[in-house]
Design goal:
single chain, 162 residues, alpha/beta, five-stranded mixed beta sheet, two-stranded antiparallel ribbon, 4 helices, 18% strand
Length: 162
């Protein structure tokens, strides 16, 4: 059986829609920044790319392109106050239990158990994909998120992809 040539298929798909060939990010190394203190003393935040938003906020447009929108989700948000606005994955399980894509209750449990030091006051939802201008993520979106995490004195972030 031949391997699926995912990158080639994806490039052909987007080229057929009139997009320029995507410039894939190639990392020659993977820098690791060790924690400056033990995990049980760290304040932890989350970022999900699963299209999670508050029910009272405008929904994400799952078909939007190059949308660098980043929603702030308070750490005390109740699961019933959150909605999923993405059509690129089956989120029926996450609709029954938001922790599948936004494990906020599990993070709180880790804090109670002393595995992490604290839950950050805010979490984030965004970077849903369909972002074809990676330079915008590198130069705008990611630095804006990093600034918010710094303002909240976050020591570690859990990335929860969709």
């Amino acid at each position: 059986m031949d391997p699926i040539r995912y990158v080639e298929k994806l490039n052909n798909h987007y080229r057929s829609q009139g997009f320029q060939p995507y410039q894939w990010t190639v990392n020659d190394d993977a820098p690791l920044t060790p924690l400056k203190k033990p995990l049980n003393q760290c304040r932890v935040a989350m970022l999900t790319s699963g299209g999670v938003s508050r029910c009272d906020a405008p929904p994400f447009n799952p078909q939007a392109r190059n949308d660098l929108r980043l929603d702030v989700l308070d750490s005390d948000s109740l699961p019933g106050c959150l909605a999923i606005n993405d059509d690129y994955y089956d989120h029926s399980d996450a609709e029954r239990d938001i922790n599948c894509i936004f494990p906020v209750e599990r993070l709180r449990e880790l804090a109670v158990e002393g595995i992490i030091g604290a839950v950050a006051p805010h979490h984030y939802s965004g970077f849903m994909g369909r972002i074809y201008t990676r330079s915008a993520v590198i130069n705008e979106g990611a630095p804006a998120l990093a600034l918010r995490l710094k303002e909240d004195r976050v020591d570690a972030a859990a990335l929860v992809p969709a």
